[in-house]
Write a structure and sequence with these properties.
cell projection; 148 residues; cilium; coiled coil; mainly alpha; 4 helices; Flagellar FliJ protein
């Protein structure tokens, strides 16, 4: 009976690790999504600003105003470059979190655990795939939740 208790404890710990990894993946995806939205807003603002510049140029403008436009556009380009770098970092974090979740989930749902009962190998693989899908679905739902 003590062996069963120890196995149950190990199973609970493994499930908690998988849940934690899924939660982390959700947080990373949320961060990545926010970075994408911020980058898109900056690019949209840059396009709008360039359109304003074009219309002001066709109407005529002073050299000081032209210099201000140029400086502001350069500042926007730097901000866009920085946000692209941030987005790349978030994408890497998502990839790492996804791999961690897959590793934890695979450890938790090894096919051998399901096959000890004499189940055919195909059934074992289907069961493992089903568990993986369930955890990936959990991670996606966690990513959709608003942070508290």
């Amino acid at each position: 009976m003590a062996e069963h208790g120890a196995l149950a404890t190990l199973k609970d710990l493994a499930e908690k690790e998988v849940e934690d990894a899924a939660r982390l993946l959700g947080e990373m995806r949320r961060g990545c999504q926010q970075a994408e939205e911020q980058l898109k807003m900056l690019i949209d603002y840059q396009n709008e600003y360039r359109n304003n510049l074009n219309s002001d140029m066709s109407a005529g403008m002073t050299s000081n105003r032209w210099i201000n436009y140029q400086q502001f556009i350069q500042t926007l380009e730097k901000a866009i470059t920085q946000h692209r770098q941030q987005l790349n970092q978030w994408t890497q974090k998502v990839d790492i979190a996804l791999k961690q979740l897959a590793r934890k989930e695979t450890t938790f749902a090894r096919p051998g655990r399901h096959c000890r009962n004499g189940n055919p190998r195909r059934h074992c693989l289907q069961k493992t795939a089903s568990i993986r899908k369930r955890w990936m679905s959990f991670a996606q739902r966690a990513a959709m939740r608003k942070p508290e």
